[in-house]
Amino acid sequence: MNTSITWPELRRSGQLRGQWVALDNCRYDQATLQPIEGNVVDADEDLAALCGRMRDTGRSSCAIVFCGQDVAVAPRESA
Question: 21 and 51 in contact (C-beta within 8 Å)?
């Protein structure tokens, strides 16, 4: 991907639904330890291909999540 997309933008767009997504600069939910916000750096329908590209570019600390029918990760609602 040429540009980073924040997780809230991704959630609204639905453009990566059905793909594995690499997130960097994540913020994590303290209860579930799941990423709730981050920058999308790459995505692919093939998990092995995505992981290979991440390894080749030296991005070994990205969180990898799957965007299913409903986006699995959403930003925390502010109180």
Answer: no
Phi, psi torsion values for 11, nearest 5 degrees? -60, -40
Token representation of residue 50: 């995505």
Mind listing the pLDDT tens digit for each residue in 42-70?
A: 999 999 999 999 999 998 889 998 887 65
The answer for residues whose C-beta is within 8 angstroms of residue 66's C-beta and 6 or more apart is 19, 20, 21, 72
| Alpha-carbon distances, residue 55 vs 49, 68, 70 (angstroms) | 10, 24, 28
From first CA to last CA, the distance across the chain in angstroms is 33
* pTM more than 0.85: no
Helix (H) or strand (E) holding 8: helix 7-13
Rounded Cα distance between 61 and 24, Å, is 7
The structure tokens listed for 5 are: 């997309």
Do 40 and 4 contact (CB within 8 A), yes or no? yes
